[in-house]
Amino acid sequence: GLQALIFDVDGTLADTERDGHRPAFNAAFAEAGLDWHWSVELYGELLAVTGGKERMRHYLAQYRPEFEVDRQAYADVDALIAHLHRRKTEHYVALLGKGGIPLRSGVLRLLREAHAAGVRLAIATTTTPENVTALLESGPEPGLVDWFEVIAAGDVVREKKPAPDIFELALAQLNLPASACVAIEDSENGVRSALGAGLEALLVTTSCYTETQDFSGATLVVDQLGEPGDPARAARGDLGG
Ligand code: XBP
Ligand code: MG
């Protein structure tokens, strides 16, 4: 039977990408004196690469091939990227601290029901642990972060999604087989990661950047979890057997 839910964070718990991570990256670029700006559209393309540091490296290779790092200020490109990512994380956490990004519809309801039923909760995400904590603590449920027994996040694994490493780590830390868990994701990269770790029960709640992606292998794809009484929810199915 079902023993644990393993949640993705960005796009799944909250719509963090367009109005959270993206402006935080742009703020870090501007304050470093860089003329980089990630529009809503460009960011959609860049999301193909998971991980903020990896995404910046990809942007440089694809869109700024001529870029040369200011050697007076940074030892090399990696040092610049590490600096930008630290600052970006600070901007992002500050935004969340102001209550800037709510949990998606139905997320808190599902977490409360699972928590009350003794279903174990875990996270498997590409973003940093501090971002996860800041998001969970920014909402209306005090102590929500403590409901999660396992938070597998960020650079703790060698390869980020779509590689299976982060879901494998979450399963290992839960000490459960994939067959006892349901993964909840919003992106193709996330679905590939979960499937690669053997998770077959896979619920996808598409988000603003992922609506048109390929979710083959997912058990159920919906546009949101929704709340009871929300008419959009009545039309959708149930995770079922
Ligand atoms: C999330 C990511 C992250 C965020 C930015 O993917 O790819 O890189 O965009 O966060 P997923 P960081 O939802 O599949 O985990 O800058 O902290 O990486
Ligand atoms: Mg996601």
Main attributes of the structure:
241 residues, alpha/beta, Rossmann fold, DNA polymerase, domain 1, 6-stranded parallel sheet, 9 helices, 6 strands, globular, binds magnesium ion
What can you see in these coordinates?
- With 241 residues, the protein is an alpha/beta fold.
- It has two domains: 4-15 and 102-234, HAD superfamily/HAD-like (Rossmann fold, 3-Layer(aba) Sandwich); 17-97, Putative phosphatase, domain 2 (DNA polymerase, domain 1, Orthogonal Bundle).
- Helices cover 41% and strands 12% of the residues.
- The chain contains nine helices and six strands; from the N terminus they run βαααααβαβαβαββα.
- A six-stranded parallel sheet has the order 3-2-1-4-5-6, sandwiched between helices.
- The radius of gyration is 18 Å and the shape is globular.
- Bound molecules: xylulose-1,5-bisphosphate and magnesium ion.
- Magnesium ion binds next to loops.
- Magnesium ion (MG) binds at residues 8, 10-12, 186-187, 190.
